Amino acid sequence: MGRYSFEDWNLLFGIILDTIWYHRNNRNFNGFLFSVVGSVREIWSMFNLIKQAWVIETPLQRLRGMPLRDGIRWEAPPQGYVKCNTDGSVNQGQASDVAGGIIRDEAGNFVVAFSNHLGLCSVLHAELWGALLGMKLALARGIRKVVVELDSMVAVLLIQ
């Protein structure tokens, strides 16, 4: 991997995904255009800033289970399962609603991420679409043991 470690690539990959997601939403919901060159500069700037602020000396595995904010943290699925975290996003009246998510294995390793433009729908429908899309993607990849996690209690109750 050259001069960058495995942890560096993990960090860089996360920053790239975050930047793409941010600019995509800004374009879809606010009509803002973005520069690819500017985005690349932004990615490297954020990478270098984080590397300076947080020296990664241990594998990312040690971070697993640490609270992200307000006691919220990612918890691993049972052994042999993957976890699909999904979310829906609605921009009232703009027909630019989306659902997406990420699937990770029991060690927290990235498996696949997804997003889909839904058109115009309710928040509940966007949440439910996220769960459905995540399960369909897992099945398409031959993954049968899936824990789906949503942030909408109403959607969870409807699925149960």
* Low-confidence parts: 56-61
Approximate strand percentage: 15-25%
Give the beta-strand count.
4
**Elements, N to C (H/E):** HHEEEHEH
Could you tell me how far the N terminus lies from the C terminus, measured between alpha carbons in angstroms? 45 Å
Query: What spatial form do the alpha-carbon principal axes imply?
Result: flat
**Radius of gyration using CA atoms only:** 17 Å
Reported for the largest beta sheet, the result is: 4 strands, mixed
Which structural class fits the helix and strand makeup? alpha+beta
- Residues in helices, as a percent range: 40-55%
> Assembly type of the shown chains?
single chain
Average pLDDT for all residues:
82
Number of DSSP helical runs: 4
Largest sheet, spatial ordering of strands: 3-2-1-4
Provide structural commentary.
- With about 160 residues, the chain is an alpha+beta fold.
- It is about 40% helix and about 20% strand.
- It contains 4 helices and 4 strands.
- A hairpin with a 7-residue loop joins strand 1 (about 80-90) and strand 2.
- This is RNase H type-1 domain-containing protein.
- GO terms for molecular function: nucleic acid binding; RNA-DNA hybrid ribonuclease activity.
In short, what is this structure?
The chain is an alpha+beta fold. The chain contains four helices and four strands; from the N terminus they run ααβββαβα. The chain has a four-stranded mixed sheet with strand order 3-2-1-4.
